[in-house]
Amino acid sequence: MDGELKPVYGLGNRWANTIDRPVVDPPIQKDIERYLIPLLGLYHVRGCPYNCNYCSVIKISGQQAHSTPIECTLESLSRAKKSGIQFIMFVSDNFNKYPEANLLLEEMIKRDLTIPFLCQCDAQVARQPEFVDLLGRGRCYEMFVGVETFDKNALKQANKFHNKPDSYNQIIKLCRKATIQSHFSNIIGFPSDTVESIHEQSNTIQLLNPSLASFNILTPIPGTEQYEDYKSKGLLTEKNMDRIDGTCLTWRHPVISPDEMTNILFQCFMDCCNAALKAGHLSYNNKAMLFAFRHYSKQGMHPMSGGTGKSI
Length: 312
What we know:
The protein contains eleven helices and eight strands. It has one domain: Alpha-Beta Barrel (TIM Barrel), CATH 3.20.20.70. The chain is globular and about 55 Å long. Helix content is about 40%, strand content about 15%. The protein has about 300 residues and is of the alpha/beta class.
């Protein structure tokens, strides 16, 4: 029946090969004016080719790229630009693995649809200097990369074989050359982690000095391979789904207590923000984000959770 969700959209498969989504219309002007920074999210590609055991994306969207037609995405960008949208967030994972990414960027440049945008790339982008350059010319202002950890054994245990810690510095260099902010996302609290090893990871991040660094506590997400593994081993300790948010320990870590883990999380944010601000050579936007990250961390709030204060 029209207007109702279907259990499956792939004609016998769980995921459709293409996503016939309509063009995205931005909010009306009255609603846009409510926001300090008018931003529009575009989910033009779904799916991830990897098999990280902690990730829910592959369980929701599959392991093959399912994309909207380029013309659909370009029309969405055109309407966004006309309406006054100032920033675009391509929320799809692994923008650098999107088969038509180059063509999309080239058409954005050609048609003058280069609204400043943020995208997510995997760590293999270190081997794609021409692509990073094209991102910069397309007005990408920030690249979010899940570096997760520098511990190769932890990456192996998580099935994240495509991350090579030795290449992380190359990502920062390529982004700087293209005038793109590098945002390194980290996971702390792998089973092999200790208080000392997490602080060592934070120190390494500070030395590399990406534009931004964020942290989340390893959190088994229901439906993932990791969740089922931890559940079978009796390691899960939290039944309140509201706490599965990356800010608190929801399973029995071998050597770190829940309170210790939360304290380390915000200390990592504070230390990396302070180091980046001290290093200087920051854009206005970069500096503003660092001050915001530090401010929320002081309050015991995850800087990327949104909002301006704790809920009552």
